[in-house]
């Protein structure tokens, strides 16, 4: 039996966090290849440290996309984020590119040929989750943790917060009563800042954004509102701490409120089920909850490399379901083709829409007109209702 009253915490990090710098560079490379060839294959990792960026991985795409072109894309990402500090500057950083051609063994397992459909790019388990706690069907702690940093970031980019730097982290702890979030018991925000700005000033800047994001009456007590707890945060980004692609998978998904299969998203083209199957699992879970069939839904998919069909579909409605879970499993498997090709085509994932996903969460975002965040659409609500009526 699930607990009704408890505290739950989730964290977020800004686009200037070292790991998120790397995620954005890797996804910018994905977009670069998909812009040139919608069926390009990309698996690229990024490491960043003091004035150095290292890219490695394998690709299959136009030969016109050289190491120099990839390097310029990496610099452009760093420039857009806003890094122009001595230890990490978009212009001065050394960029090393060790990206090479895709393994023929992997290509053989994934490519469609003859009567063989396109197979999964790897084995693995992927989870999707949705709940009725917020308007975007996300768990409330990660929803508010993301929004605090995103609002601060927008103000920094429009020039109204010159005191702050790109690197930041947040953490929100909420009190749940009878299974519903009712207030924040603590909020932590650490943000990079200019040398000459006082911590009192930083605290007041941050307070305004936290108060604007949290519902009325949800602010924690003053002694549970932590801003730059170490007292100083001038050196930030990869100059302060090395970054790697794929180290913030819980920030990327549900803040720990739901399972994660283990695979990271960034740097991977949509033939990789680590990414595409996690997206479709979220899509299905969100539509189940939006259809009023449950207050919470977790959906698991599993795949084997080179095999097109999912090996299993599992649904958990956490005793909040108005229909049987096995009926939901059967219906979802019939409503949408859950092969890697079927997922890509249904969600139109072969478009250059991935860099924007690499900060502030892959889920709980509004669908874009150009196809970004297509997995957040609610266009399966009526088909799901009809299938389960």
Would you mind describing this structure in some detail?
This protein has 389 residues and is α+β, with helices and mostly antiparallel strands. The protein is built from ten helices and 13 strands. It has a four-stranded mixed sheet. The chain has a four-stranded mixed sheet with strand order 6-3-2-11, with helices on one face. Strand 8 and strand 9 form a beta hairpin.
Pick out its properties.
flat, four-stranded mixed sheet, alpha+beta, 389 residues
Task: Offer a concise description of the structure.
The chain has helices at about 20-35, 65-80, 105-110, 140-155, 200-215, 250, 275-290, 325-335, 340-345, 380-389, and strands spanning about 5-15, 40-50, 50-60, 85, 90, 95-100, 125-130, 165-175, 180-195, 225, 245, 295-305, 310-315. The chain is an alpha+beta fold and about 400 residues long.
């Amino acid at each position: 039996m699930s607990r009704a009253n408890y505290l739950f915490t989730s964290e977020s990090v800004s686009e200037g966090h070292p790991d998120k710098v790397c995620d954005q560079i890797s996804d910018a490379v994905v977009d670069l290849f998909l812009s040139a060839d919608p069926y390009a294959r990309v698996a690229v990792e990024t490491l960043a440290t003091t004035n150095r960026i290292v890219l490695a991985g394998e690709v299959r795409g136009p030969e016109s996309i050289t190491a120099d072109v990839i390097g310029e894309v990496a610099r452009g990402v760093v420039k857009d984020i806003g890094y122009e500090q001595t230890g990490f500057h978009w212009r001065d950083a050394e960029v090393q590119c060790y990206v090479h051609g895709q393994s023929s063994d992997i290509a053989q397992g994934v490519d469609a040929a003859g009567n063989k459909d396109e197979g999964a790019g790897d084995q693995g388990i992927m989870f999707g989750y949705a709940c009725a706690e917020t308007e975007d069907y996300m768990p409330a702690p990660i929803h508010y943790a993301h929004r605090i940093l995103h609002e601060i970031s927008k103000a920094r980019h429009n020039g109204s917060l010159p005191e702050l730097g790109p690197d930041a982290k947040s953490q929100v702890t909420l009190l749940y009563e009878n299974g519903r979030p009712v207030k924040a018991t603590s909020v932590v925000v650490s943000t990079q800042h200019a040398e000459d700005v006082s911590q009192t000033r930083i605290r007041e800047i941050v307070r305004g954004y936290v108060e604007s994001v949290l519902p009325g009456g949800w602010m924690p007590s003053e002694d549970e509102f932590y801003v730059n707890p170490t007292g100083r945060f001038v050196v930030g980004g990869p100059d302060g701490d090395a970054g790697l692609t794929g180290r913030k998978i819980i920030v990327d998904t549900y803040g720990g409120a739901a399972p994660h299969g283990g695979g990271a998203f960034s740097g991977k083209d949509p033939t990789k089920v680590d990414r595409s199957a996690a997206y479709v699992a979220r899509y299905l879970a969100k539509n189940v909850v939006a259809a009023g069939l449950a207050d919470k839904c977790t959906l698991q998919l599993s795949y084997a490399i080179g095999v097109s069909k999912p090996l299993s579909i599992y649904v958990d409605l956490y005793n909040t379901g108005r229909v049987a879970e096995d009926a939901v499993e059967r219906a979802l498997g019939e409503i949408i083709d859950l092969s890697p090709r079927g997922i890509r085509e249904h969600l139109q994932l072969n478009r250059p829409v991935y860099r924007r996903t690499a900060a502030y969460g892959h889920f709980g975002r509004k669908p874009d007109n150009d196809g970004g965040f297509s997995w957040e659409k609610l266009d399966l609500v009526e088909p799901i209702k009809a299938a389960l009526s």
